[in-house]
Amino acid sequence: MTTVLIVDDEPIVREVVERYLRQDGFQVETAADGDEALRRFAAARPDLVVLDLMLPGPDGLEVCRRMRADSNVPIIMLTARGDETDTIIGLGVGADDYVSKPFSPRELVARIKAVLRRTTGEHLVASGADPLRFGDLTIRPDRRQVELNGQSVELTAREFDLLAFLAGNPSHVFTRDELLDKVWDWAYASDGGTVTVHIRRLRQKIEVDPERPRHVKTVWGVGYKFEP
Asked: Which domains does the chain have, with CATH numbers?
């Protein structure tokens, strides 16, 4: 059974989201502060974490950093509506996605399912399951693995999805909105900053010189492409 850890200091948020998730067959763990979240995370090893940004004790950003240091589990951050700075920081420390408060529980559950579909392998890039090889870079969609010079590269779920999609459509230029639609699988309100942050993190992990990327290229005024 798929386990989701909900971390929020508001009891009503935990209760409502837990109820909706259990109705859809998920196993649910909850935590009300940063310290409890880390304990539950270590004990339950959830398949996905819903993490509020504002928490007693270690805040959501610190909790996200600690979880990401130990695991690539998908993390959906809950942020205050319109607080773009916190959102960008949250994505920068390793969150895969975010939902702004107040939110619809159905929206959150749909977002959770979309992320899990990708991380469990139900969604594969257009190129299929065959390995994609580009010189010293190898992408294995069936295993959701990336290797650089024969060494495994640790990517978050969303970083892998972005790389696999771009590499599966080499030399094709995608706008930020197109990438949000194709990779994030959700109707974002023109939040191009989300794509920008993930592109930057991806370059830091797979490019020899992130400032002069060989593969993940910026097409100024348009978007991004993967150069094979």
From this structure: 3-119 (3.40.50.2300), 132-226 (1.10.10.10)
Worst-scoring range by mean pLDDT, 113-117, 120-124, 136-140, 151-155? 120-124
Q: Are 51 and 77 in contact (CB under 8 A)?
A: yes
pLDDT for 127: 43
Q: Amino acid identity of 4?
A: V
Question: What pLDDT, on a 0 to 100 scale, did the predictor assign at position 125?
Answer: 44
**Element (DSSP H or E) covering residue 105:** helix 105-119
Q: Which two tokens stand for residue 38?
A: 């880390």
Tokens of 104: 């619809």
Q: What is the pLDDT of residue 189?
A: 42
For the chain, the first-to-last Cα distance in angstroms comes to 39
Would you tell me the crossing angle of helices 105-119 and 157-168 to the nearest 10 degrees?
Answer: 60
Residue of 157, 160, 168, 161 lying closest to 132 (CA atoms): 168
Handedness of CA 168, 173, 175, 176 (dihedral sign): positive
Mapped onto helix, strand or coil, the DSSP state of residue 218 is strand
Residue 123 has pLDDT above 50, yes or no: no
List the structure tokens of 130.
């065959």
Instruction: Report pTM.
Output: 0.65
β pairing state of 223-226 and 174-175: antiparallel
